[in-house]
Amino acid sequence: MNNPIAALDSLSLAFLVAAIAWAMTNKRSELGSGARVAIIATLITMILRDFSNVLQWTGVTQFFDQYLEDFIEILIPLFLGFFLYTFLQDKMVTSLKSSAQERQLILDSLSESLMFINRDLNIEWTNKAAEALFERSPNEMIGHKCHSILHNSDIPCDECPVIRAISSGRIEENEVSAFSAKTLHMTAHPVIGPTGRIIGALESVVDISPRKKMEQQLAGASKMEAIGKLAGGVAHDFNNILTAIIGFAECGIEEAQESPTEKQNPQLEALFKNIIESGQRAADLTQQLLAFGRRQILHPRIIDLNEIITGTLNMLSRMIGEDIDLRLNLADGAILLSADRAQIEQVIMNLAVNARDAMPNGGKIEIITQVTETVRNFADDPVHAPPGLYASIIIQDSGKGMEPDVLNKLFDPFFTTKNNGTGLGLSVTYGIVKQHGGWISAYSEKNIGSVFKVYLPMAHHEEPTQDPIMKIPGSVQLDGRGIGILIVEDEARILDFVSTSLTRRNFRVFTAETFSDGLKTFETVQDECQIVLSDVVLPDGSGVDLVEKIWAVKPSLSVILSSGYTEERAGLDRIRSSGFLYLPKPYPLTKLLSTISEAMQTNILNQDTPDVSQKPAIPLSEKKGIDQPVKKGNH
Questions:
Q1: Sign of CA dihedral 309, 312, 318, 319
Q2: Which strands form 484-488's sheet, in the order they lie side by side?
Q3: What stretches pass through the bilayer (predicted)?
Q4: pLDDT in tens, 484-515
């Protein structure tokens, strides 16, 4: 081989070495890794051939001149084939990577949390929803055990759906409580590999904590409603009994006072007074039962919440004691509610007393008011709270806090952690708030304190309503002057007490115990009757329906309706809209007489109405249209 050719081969060798270095180090090359390897292999082959020429030029050996050329001619096709193979392989890998990226994009677009978990319970891949649910990055999840992510535990959870799905080959489900205090619904779908063997499970995870919370609220509301109905029914019956007890005790005092001086017995009178006081305490207890059952009669007014709190400040300070720091943080301006002032005051008192009892060694109570607008996903929003503006009362203390099991039973009637408590304070508060269309929530942390939040619908009036001046009867002396009064009452003792008391005061008393007896009695005495006093709930009908039928015949009648409770608010609205007087049970003799006195005044005013009593008495069953809806005027 001549020298010029050898020189060119030497230059070619140097150029090829430089080309190899460029192919290995050029990171920005658009060629794939497989293509780079093939190029490098081809260049090495060419180097070997040029290196052979160099060896021949130097005269080191003639062996390579004989065999190396043939060997290189064989290697070049092999390396070209290797180049083609690696190039196609690189294309395939690129395509697979693109498909995997597209799959991940699709999975990441789903709102449902997904994870693939292999037979060793290691997470192989997840989507963004799962990463957001568990608040972990992919690196913190992939390659880790599923139970370490869910429960921060080294042990699989009981009834693990992934383990069951891999074992059974069926879709398995389970609800678990994650360490993040979330309740999760897990569904594991077995994944079968190319060989027919289950290689793992695709697990979908749904956070059902909001649904569980809603179910608990509905269950709690249903339970409270059921107990409330029971409490309301007990209170109704109890009020009937108390009406008779208190009434007869007052009759006993009257008898004692009207006896001749030499026969008067002060001790007997004192005994009757004790009976009345005990009966009144029992009546107060039934009022609490009615408050819990949301069956109290409300007297709503437009009131300013801030003014109520400042107005009760002195009383609150005396109730909670000097060792507790009471602070007010009230919103600017008036916060107007359409509510019963006395009931709202009771809510504030009950919550303040509850906070006081949580701090036997003193502490701090803060009362905050603010306006809150309910929106979707509002944290404290109950199941069916309509959107709008709500007045918020927040009472927080620095007490000892409550355990979760205590917090869950907080508003249950008769539940108490105090040795001398009745267990009605917070349940009554719950009932009052619900009856006003609001809701109450409680939060507590052990050794930190508790926070109670009350939300009440705001009113839209500009000024608070002035409370009417109450007319208090000055005496129980009342002369019936022969006025006829029909009493319809199914409780025999109440009927006896009322009829005895009114007969002694010169009333002409007619009695009936049922709806049908009331109609028949009125047919007989309608010319002599000026007042009707009826219980709302009668064994065979409604007292409201009864008095409406009677009043349609004789519009000059004055009507009084009485009951231990009104089961539906619409019933009380119906009574009020009719202009009838309402006498809640239990009532003392003074209240009975003052209401009848008011009815007598109404009867005098009604004398301007055409006097039906001057006409011959006609049985109610023959009155035209008597069963038709009655239109009533104001009276």
A1: negative
A2: 508-512, 484-488, 531-535, 558-563, 581-584
A3: 6-25, 71-88
A4: 999 999 988 899 999 999 998 999 999 999 99
